[in-house]
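Budget justification, computational time. The allocation requested in the original proposal was used primarily to generate structure tokens for proteins on the priority list. As evidence of use, we reproduce two of the resulting records. The first is shown immediately below.
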Amino acid sequence: MGKHLYKNCTIIECEGIHHALGLCRKHYERKKRHGSCIINRRENNIGSLQEVFNKYCNKKNDNECWPWNGLISKQGYGRLIHKKKEYKAHRVAYELRNGIVDVEIFICHSCDNTRCVNPAHLWPGTHQDNMTDMLKKRRKQHGELCWNAKLSNELVKRIRKEFFLGEKQCNLSRKYNINKNIIHRVVRNKTWRNI
């Protein structure tokens, strides 16, 4: 018991150790992600970067998002492989229309659709510009709207009020069953500043 039916991956010329379904971990993950164990990367290398980009870009009019139909990263952004090099699809779209941009400059989406590669929806900016845009558009959830929030607005107000009336942080931590570090950050206004 505990022995696998296959000792090695069933893909020809692969010496990987069996993980699942007769495949090594690498080929198993490829099958899960792409529907096939073997990816023919040669087709991605045919033609210029513009031709490869056009193959996976679903162009519509300039006002609409152009969804990327190629590979997608875990973060939801389009990926493009050309001549064994990987590119971000939205960056390629912007640079094909506007010219090369310094690698330290971000290419940001005005439409907030990570799969969009319409150059009319893209703009260059710094990391700070991107974060400011995110906060301005309220894409970043904070406070009790955040999916993993442990506190509510009312509880934060109550904790601060009790602290300023003389209650110790360790007592508040025990009373509300909240980690004392969280209590400290709340009462010192390091978190939940919007309250």
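The second record produced under the same allocation is shown here.
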Amino acid sequence: MIEEYGFVWHMVGTPNYLSDVAKCMKEHPKIKFMIDHLCMEQGGDVYDEWAQNMDLIAALPNVCVNLGGIEIWEVEDPQPYLIQALKIFGYDRCCIGSNWYLSVASSYDYSDTLWEVKKAMETLGASKEEQDKVWRHTATRIYG
């Protein structure tokens, strides 16, 4: 039914679920998936494990990622995660989503998330067109 109506299946979780998430996504290639917050919900600094599993997921063309939610990742530096996601998914499959309610609840300034994403794109030398994909065009394409 999800694929029939063109719905997007949002996956939220922690890095220890990523291998199972990858299996699910691979078994359902006609469903559009969005990995929210890079599957880093209270994940902690587990970059190597996270990156290995995300590489597998990025090979699946039906998957996009939401770069938001940094305030709940529990990492010292979000840049390696953001940069890796942008590299392996590309600007066409990355977007930014509002997480304002969690930002407010955790006393985190949501604009900090936007600055972190912008910084990662600048580090990679993203053009204005590539940045525009992350800021709006990917979400518009995915959600209509």
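A brief technical remark on that second record: Residues 29 and 61 are 8 Å apart (CA to CA).
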